[in-house]
């Protein structure tokens, strides 16, 4: 489902391209829990293989950096990868690939291209350093540790942090 046969593109001239509409779910990826992609991508025959580009809507399991709750984050994945052909499609001769070619970005000798690694890598990159369950997450109280999204504790420190000043004003009617 994340694998595509690109033989028809490789047989075409360089520059031949194909637009694909993707709507796939799959087993959650280990690092991010990503399990779906949706959107339009383009495959284009370039000199040594296929250039994959496009933007996909996707998801990831995250932990909020303020309140530490787990939540599902909507991600936009930017795909921009060149997949190299393992064999020349016309002659069947194995390609001379650079030594450092990532095997995940090689089109195998059945001319199958697997998007899984591209999705995995772009999901890792797309997750913000400090994910928030929502932009205005109130976080945990540094004094008592209660979740300020749910509990209005009476700890004094709430008033000292300027970030909370307006919230404190709102809450201390
Ligand atoms: Zn939060
Ligand atoms: Zn508190």
> How many domains is the backbone divided into?
2
Q: How many angstroms separate the termini?
A: 56 Å
What ranges have pLDDT less than 50 throughout 5 or more consecutive residues?
Answer: none
Q: Biggest sheet, open or closed, and with what strands and sense?
A: 5 strands, mixed
For the CA atoms, what is the radius of gyration? 23 Å
Nearest-integer average pLDDT: 91
- In DSSP terms (H or I, runs of 4 or more residues), the helix count works out at 4
Q: List the secondary-structure elements in sequence, H or E.
A: EHEEEEEEHHH
Give an account of the 3D structure:
With 173 residues, the chain is an alpha+beta fold. The chain has two domains: 3-126, no CATH class; 138-173, no CATH class. It has four helices and seven strands, in the order E-H-E-E-E-E-E-E-H-H-H. The strands form two sheets. A five-stranded mixed sheet has the order 2-3-4-5-6. Bound molecules: zinc ion (2 copies). One zinc ion is lined by residues 64, 66-67, 69, 132-133, 137.
Name the features.
2 domains; single chain; binds zinc ion; 173 residues
Short account of what is shown:
This protein is α+β, with helices and mostly antiparallel strands and 173 residues long. It is built from 4 helices and 7 strands. It folds into 2 domains: 3-126, no CATH class; 138-173, no CATH class.
């Amino acid at each position: 489902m994340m694998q595509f046969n690109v033989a028809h593109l490789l047989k075409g001239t360089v520059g031949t391209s194909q637009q694909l509409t993707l709507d796939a779910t799959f087993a959650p990826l280990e690092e991010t829990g990503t399990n779906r992609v949706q959107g339009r991508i383009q495959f284009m025959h370039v000199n040594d293989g296929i250039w994959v580009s496009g933007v996909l809507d996707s998801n990831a399991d995250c932990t909020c950096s303020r309140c530490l709750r787990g939540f599902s984050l909507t991600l936009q994945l930017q795909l921009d990868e060149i997949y190299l052909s393992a064999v020349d499609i016309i002659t069947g001769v194995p390609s001379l690939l650079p030594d450092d070619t990532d095997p995940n970005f090689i089109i195998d000798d059945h001319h199958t291209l697997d998007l899984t690694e591209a999705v995995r890598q772009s999901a890792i990159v797309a997750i913000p350093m400090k994910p928030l369950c929502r932009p205005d997450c109130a976080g945990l109280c540094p004094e008592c540790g209660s979740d300020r999204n749910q509990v209005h504790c009476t700890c004094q420190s709430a008033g000292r942090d300027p970030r909370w000043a307006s919230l404190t004003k709102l809450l201390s009617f």
